[in-house]
Design goal:
By secondary structure, the chain is an alpha/beta fold. The chain has a domain of 228 residues: Rossmann fold (3-Layer(aba) Sandwich). α6 links the parallel β5 and β6. α1 packs across α8 and α7 packs parallel to α9. A seven-stranded parallel beta sheet has the order 3-2-1-4-5-6-10, sandwiched between helices. The longest helix has 20 residues.
Length: 331
């Protein structure tokens, strides 16, 4: 990452108080950027507050569904770079309540892109799509030229996000780069129904880890620090003709079953617990993983953290977080 690039650059980050957002905002601030962050909900245990970022950024209370607020933020803070992470990102919530997911993810994205179109200072936008947008394909890994055919509510919302971004690229020549990442993990994910934080929390509390599926679903997992690097690299190189308007996959290119990830967490935690397999998962794709050859070739980007290294850091973060009496790692 080019730290000089960010010095005094005005950056607007949506989803800043979620899981990935605080790690990204922290790195942007450490690189000299002026960050304006959008916060819909106050989440006191978010890394955003644990890192003290609320005292280092322009914090805007509001929602992606408020177009006038977005337009005001972009113009009044003279934003140069937009990084759009904001979304309802939990698959199970999307299945239970698709309308709220569609409102946040789809309407929120078209509002933001329209605000960008009507702002004169924007020189680059990074939009978070997802590997889930690809849907089910017989041939894996996913490559960027594959059709987006996600069918389930969360997957469909990310198809729409992706296509909206492509539409604004094609119609208005907006300086957008699209990211499609594997499953993020790392310290600060407070959605404990997700595999990695849920398993780690169970182990720390000496509770049997629960696997909702049959344990054989295949995914790729990308450590949060590698994800931050991916987003910042996209923004830094967005002016290049072979980057602007493009979509990029980001992955370690190592693929793991759910049961293998759980067993690795147990091993790294030195735990004798055995997981309980419920085999109750529905509306999820059995196998999905990405090729990031395009990112490696065009962006000179590669993941730096192995699953062992990333999970070790993550386990340490949650041990400290759940203890409550120590300083959070990375703060």
């Amino acid at each position: 990452m080019a730290r000089d690039f960010w010095t005094n650059r005005n950056v607007f980050v949506t989803g800043a108080t979620g899981f990935l957002g605080p790690w990204l905002v922290k790195e942007l601030k450490n690189s000299g950027a002026n960050v304006t962050a959008l916060e819909r909900d106050f989440i006191p245990n978010s890394n955003f507050y644990l890192f003290g970022l609320d005292k280092r950024v322009n914090l805007i209370k509001g929602d992606l569904t408020d177009y006038q607020l977005l337009l005001r933020c972009l113009n009044e803070f003279e934003i140069d770079t937009v990084i759009h992470l904001g979304a309802q990102a939990i698959v199970s919530i999307a299945n239970r309540n698709p309308l709220s997911t569609f409102e946040s993810n789809i309407r929120g994205t078209w509002n933001l892109l329209e605000a960008v179109r009507n702002s004169k200072s924007i020189s680059r936008v990074v939009v978070a799509s997802s590997d889930k947008a690809y849907g089910t394909h017989k041939i894996l890994p996913y490559t960027e030229d594959m059709q987006l055919q996600g069918k389930y509510p969360y997957d469909a919302s990310k198809v729409c996000v992706d296509i909206l971004a492509q539409s604004y690229i094609s119609t208005y020549n907006l300086p957008i780069v699209i990211t499609r990442c594997g499953n993020f993990y790392g310290g600060g994910d407070l959605n404990f129904n997700r595999l990695v934080p849920g398993t780690i929390k169970s182990v720390i509390e000496d509770q049997i880890p629960i696997i909702r599926s049959d344990g054989l679903f295949i995914r790729d997992y990308i450590y949060v620090a590698d994800a931050v690097s991916a987003y910042m690299t996209c923004a830094e190189k967005a002016d290049l003709p072979n980057v602007r308007g493009q979509a990029f996959n980001f992955s370690t290119e190592k693929y793991h079953s759910v049961i293998d990830v759980v067993n690795l967490i147990l091993k790294l935690s030195k735990s004798d617990l055995k997981p309980k397999i419920l085999n109750q998962a529905s509306n999820e794709i059995r196998e999905q993983y990405l090729s990031s050859k395009k990112a490696e070739t065009v962006l000179d980007w590669q993941a730096k953290y192995t699953l062992d290294e990333g999970l070790t850091n993550t386990i340490n973060w949650y041990r400290t977080f759940l203890n409550k009496n120590e300083t959070i790692p990375g703060s």
